[in-house]
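The following block was generated as part of the benchmark described in Methods. Ligand: glycine.
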Amino acid sequence: MSFAQHYAEHISHLCKLYDAALTEVGNGVDAILLHSGTDRYYYADDQAAPFRAYGHFAYWLPINRPSQLVLYKPGDKPVYFQVVPRDFWHEQDITVEDWIAKQFTVHVLDNSSEVAERLSRLGLQTSRLAFIGEHTQYATAIGIPSATQNPSALLSWLDYHRAYKTDYEVACIRKANRIALQGHNAARTTFENGGSEYDIHMAYLQACNILEEETPYTNIVALDEKSAILHYQYKRRETIANSQVLLIDAGCRVNGYCSDITRTSTRSHTLSLFSDLVEAMEELEINLVRRVVPGISYLDIHTAAQRGVAEILLQHGICRGSIDELMHEKISTLFMPHGVGHLLGIQVHDVGGKQINTRGDITAPPTDYPALRNTRTIEKGQVFTIEPGLYFIPQLLDPERRSSRGKLINWKLVDSLLPLGGIRIEDNVLVTASGVENLTRVSI
Ligand code: GLY
Ligand code: MN
Ligand code: MN
């Protein structure tokens, strides 16, 4: 099925979803106005950061531009207020492909201040609308009461449902995976040829045919010891003689939807113990994906990942003792201090990961695993990442050198591995009725 067909279904799904939201938590409003956001300027500067449309807006409309509005009124075709300022300093024209435009009644305006009058022509009073978006000053200016600006009951309701992807959303994430995999292939080749972090980053962008500002998050391109910095943000330009490890965590966007993929690569001269660890982590990651099935908690996958890391540490002589001892002493958290993954969608760490119901009640992660971003029950239609890691992080390990649990660690081996940084393997998966589909392990 084409994007066009999927998108038509997606929009009709959103109409039903918003109907239910208005019935359950609409508090009597007649319609909902969604705003994409505004440019954000650096302090005391006339330069803006790259724009990123607000998630609930992008859920309806894949137009990554400021000051755009979507109106949803039950029973009516959704309206797109396309605001195209008269401005000769910047490109302001917006190309809206047919398959998108067809789902809306489109009003093209010079200025968002004209929206109030258009709403009134559509028979709507702004005092009876809900507004969803950051620019609440604008909402106030057109007469939307503060009580119906970003009402928390409505947002919690919508956030919760964002976890269940439509076929259109899955198609976007699927394509975002395929494109990113081309980048990952190019990145690996550049690493194998001795390229710098900068060279690898540029090879990735070029192979995906994207600009840096189009990536869902800052590419993590880390050679050797930098791969132990979980969200390493720089790209060293100097080549590293005989680099041994590349950890690259990089995705793409398709119609706003993200992929989020990590691969760890070694070279023929890499310390063999480290290459063995990479192989073991690959196997662990694949086995964790296999465990995904509706009905269990995502925390179960996380706990299995922690146990899997502890087993790898034992098998490779990096730790001693029994698996139960290592788990009891929480040794694996020193080597994998992050959660095994998160919901994925329009936002790379998608909304609602800890929400247990539409009311916005949350399940906090257990105190042993404070960084876990997803505590939900696994259900059909969810898309999330599975991303176990094993790192040698001096900040976490050094204080343990003289601790009692530190006796479970083989420090000589740890010292030999510290210069190689760490490992993360990350795939994106879709929960199906009976199990899981890996959206990343596909041939391209
Ligand atoms: N790319 C950030 C993460 O994997 O969560
Ligand atoms: Mn991730
Ligand atoms: Mn990632």
